[in-house]
Amino acid sequence: MWREHKHVFSISNVFKLKESKRAVNSIRSLVEEEDEEDDVEKVSWSGEPVGSISWSVKETESSIRSTGEVRDQSFPKIHTAPSLPKNSSGYSLSSLFKEHSEKLLTSLILYLLDCRWSVHDDVILLWQDYVSDWTPEETVKRMQQGKVYSLEKFRSLQDKLLLLDEAVNAHDGNVITAVLIYLKKSLSKEILFRELITREIALRHYIHYLKEIGEQKLLLMQYRDHLNVRDENKRRDFLKNCLSFPFSPDDATHVQDHYTLLERQIIIEANDKQVESSGQADIFKKYPRKASILNMPIITTLYYSCFYHYGESDGTFSSPANIRKTFRISDKQFLLTCLGARAKLKAWFDVDALFTTKNWLGYTKKRSPIGFHRIVDILQKNNAPVQVLQDYVNLVEDVEQKISLAQKYKCHDVIINTYRDLKDRQQLIVYRGKVERSSSEYRKIEEILSNSVRW
Amino acid sequence: MSAHLSYGRVNLNILREAARKELREFLDKCGGSKAIVWDEYLTGPFGLIAQYSLLKEHEVEKMFTLKGGRLPAADVKNIIFFVRPRLELMDIIAENVISEDKMHSPRDFHILFVPRRSMLCEQRLKEQGVLGSFINIDEYILDLIPYDGDLLSMESEGAFRECYLESDQTSLYHTAKGLMTLQALYGTIPQIFGKGECARHVANMMLRMKREFAGSQTQILPVFDSLLLLDRNVDLLTPLATQLTYEGLIDEVYGITNGFCRFLPPEKFSKMQLNSAEELYAEIRDKNFNGVGAALSKKAKIISAAFEERHSAKTVGEIKQFVSQLPHMQAARSSLANHTSIAELIKDITTSEAFFDNLTVEQEFMTGVDTDKVNTYIEDCIAQKDPLIKILRLVCMQSVCNNGLKQKLLDYYKREILQTYGYEHMLTLNNLEKTGLLKPQTSTRNNYPTIRKTLKLWMEDANEQNPNDISYVYSGYAPLSIRLTQVLARPGWRSIEEVLKMLPGPHFEERQQLPAGLHKKRQQGENRTTLVFFLGGVTYAEIAALRFLSQMEDGGTEYIIATTKLINGTSWIKSLMDRPEAQAS
């Protein structure tokens, strides 16, 4: 797709010129021998550069005006690039050289640059003047034909983009890549990426180029640009585009997940919005949605799903089970999120089911990947009633921790039963002093204390 | 307002005066009444140089904040823009100038660029067609701002990010320039030590600049004996730890900006300047917070005893003397009241379970306990959706203390963070990896324990009340950066070559020739003065540790501190996060 492209200052090796002092004199012979330029003995420019150029200008002065008129017709696109200098007078060096051999000038200048000495400013100006008349269209054509060209004259952003669009229109991968390399060198990354968002073909070439040279860092910057895309559908499409980037395997997974997530959120959002406004589902009536789910993190999305879409079959995009599987959510995270959502709805039956497992004999048992003391904290934060709380406090294995939790959340039964099982009469008597005389707890303690069989 | 700058070993008021003089000169260049239009960011740093009174003396009658549209009406001859060289600000200025009513009294425009002029900005003004409207375009070189009697800051927030993430070394150039200014005022610094890539760059630039100005050598007896340049990435650990000095905690909890701190209402002292000008503050700020209560109550006793003296005053002379001391005593009393309130606010936080748990984990990491396993506390914090910065601080700390995390562990943390806080944070995680704060463990073994043992980074019996070692500032952890400074002074870096090699970047020593006759003859027992420059930021706790070293009786060295910015773990991580504005709104 991309091969080293000829660049104006890098093809000087074509002109492996020997040093000599006959440059000025040999100009004419160069013109005559242009087809065999490689054989021509070329020479240094140590004579009188200014004089020589002005000499050439004088020599051809008479032919300038007519070419100037022709030029206007041959540059029909110039008005689209307002920052290109428009030569009002026909007195232009470039038109002069069109009359002559183009190779003459290029070989001359390249030679001078090659020698790295005494390149007079005028010569540079001459060169710039010469190439500055090439439109994006013409430049691209020259690139395709393998001729000498210069991109440096495309200075403004607008010019650069015209050039890029022209290159894309030419459908020549090499040209597009060459232009992109120039843009990468001369534009800030932010600006380049911003412009590439709207130019998909150019973007793909660029990505491929980055892949070739292994610039992972730039890929992430490209990805970062999704933050600037407001519309969710466009953002999704943008992320989809990013999927083909050669990220590191790690980053690639994350980008893939990000895309999948947004894609789903868009579907869920559209559906739920409609259901909510039609008033079909009770859950939305009872708990109206506070905000859209778009662009929320995956854990927040899972919470939302556990809140509004609990119990849906695994097949639906919005079901907790499906989300859990698709995004490889860890058991702990899943449990915590689910617990939070169901507790918020006071769906204690669902909470119970989260921990219940059946063994092969059919006995049920409560298990949790997280310590039950933390489960108790979460339930308490969601205002679970004491009846629910004490079930979980009872499951805390460490006795000391169990008692301190029970005291914190006033689960009297748990405390009393624990002391009873520990046969700690003293503690029971102390605890009796803490509960009200008329309460059922008090009566219960009394009963245990007076039951002589126990002690 | 600035007397506290001249009490220290080096009179930093000279630097402040030089900055003020330059400001006055510029203001006088624009003759007649004037209004200043401020780039809001600059008002903080300028506040450390000059008060409004100085501007008023030079006919500044109005001050505005820079914003688009038409400038507010003000009957003044000159409008002066004080701005950073930023293109977006140029567009606002152009808008101001263009919409100026030309029929109505014409006003003269001037621009003062801080800290440097920029061709690009002037070009932008030219493109907008307003460059010709400005009579004066000048620059105001504000590199090193005197922050306190022993502290200089460039107040450059982005310096760490620019140097270590974006490889933009402009701030290093400003650093070198600032150090040249300093040498012009305080004499050539004969010895330069350094550790780290950036330190090397700065030293090179300084030496080159000195060669270029070889003709204009200052004939000033050198005030500083040596300069130590330290890269922040030589010690990534220290800023991640929670500072436990009084000032450090104020910064951790409330944030200190440009020497001011905003406490939440209803405190009457909602915005307070914090520096050594306040006697009590200077006394307690560097103490471990656990020692602050005792210091405050001791102070309270002294003050009330002083007030009691009025009863014992019998003669007219005694009463007169008492009255003359009253203003000072009253100031001391109100200062005491303020700091007692602040200390109480902070105590509520330090005694909370959350603070304790967090600190426990930090200390486990710093002592090397289980740094290679999933930390359940971090896990719990993520599950509770605690602030992301808190999580990042802890994960980075674990990584630094383990010389990188095993790939599996790193991936696990990354996944948990991205799933809980959003995938876009992979950009931030990437930045942290690039700066080395977070990294996968390579095949090389964990060298942190070696560094910790050699430099004695963990002291079991740190004395918080009456410290005998710098480790008191983190209740056990001795900041690596300050240990390096301490060892350099005595016995010298040669003793820790091995450890220096484990830390990133080269270490070096350079000497600068002094003009004949300027060699200092040290008196018997006279202390050396060292300027320590932290490239990429320094914490208040590190400063406290250096002040502790300065005050040690047999220390032999006094330290002046300079930095690109005063930081803490939170502000530091924040500067490395990738959240374009688009996301915030």
From TrEMBL, chain A:
Swiss-Prot/TrEMBL GO biological process terms = intracellular protein transport; vacuolar transport
User: Where is it located?
Assistant: Cytoplasmic vesicle; Early endosome; Late endosome
Q: Which GO terms describe its cellular component?
A: early endosome; late endosome
| Keyword Lyase annotated | no
Tell me yes or no: is Metal-binding among this UniProt entry's keywords: no
Q: Which UniProt keywords apply?
A: Cytoplasmic vesicle, Endosome
| PANTHER family, alphabetized | DEFECTIVE SPERMATOGENESIS PROTEIN 39, SPERMATOGENESIS-DEFECTIVE PROTEIN 39 HOMOLOG
What is the name of the protein in this document?
Spermatogenesis-defective protein 39 homolog
Taxonomy of origin reads: Eukaryota, Metazoa, Chordata, Craniata, Vertebrata
From TrEMBL, chain B:
Predominant location of this chain?
A: cytoplasm
Give the superkingdom in one word: Eukaryota
Key words, A-Z: Cytoplasmic vesicle, Endosome, Lysosome, Membrane, Protein transport, Transport
Q: Where in the cell is it found?
A: Cytoplasmic vesicle, Autophagosome; Cytoplasmic vesicle, Clathrin-coated vesicle; Early endosome; Late endosome membrane
Give a Pfam family name. Answer: Sec1
Question: Listed GO cellular component terms?
Answer: autophagosome; clathrin-coated vesicle; early endosome; late endosome membrane; lysosomal membrane
Q: How does it sit in the membrane?
A: Peripheral membrane protein
One of its GO biological process terms is: vesicle-mediated transport
Looking up InterPro entries in the UniProt record yields:
Sec-1-like_dom1, Sec1-like, Sec1-like_dom2, Sec1-like_sf, VPS33_dom3b
Q: Which SUPFAM superfamilies match?
A: Sec1/munc18-like (SM) proteins (SSF56815)
Q: Which family does it belong to?
A: Belongs to the STXBP/unc-18/SEC1 family.
This molecule's function is given as:
Plays a role in vesicle-mediated protein trafficking to lysosomal compartments including the endocytic membrane transport and autophagic pathways. Believed to act as a core component of the putative HOPS and CORVET endosomal tethering complexes which are proposed to be involved in the Rab5-to-Rab7 endosome conversion probably implicating MON1A/B, and via binding SNAREs and SNARE complexes to mediate tethering and docking events during SNARE-mediated membrane fusion.
Name under which the protein is recorded: Vacuolar protein sorting-associated protein 33A
Q: Which organism is it from?
A: Oncorhynchus kisutch
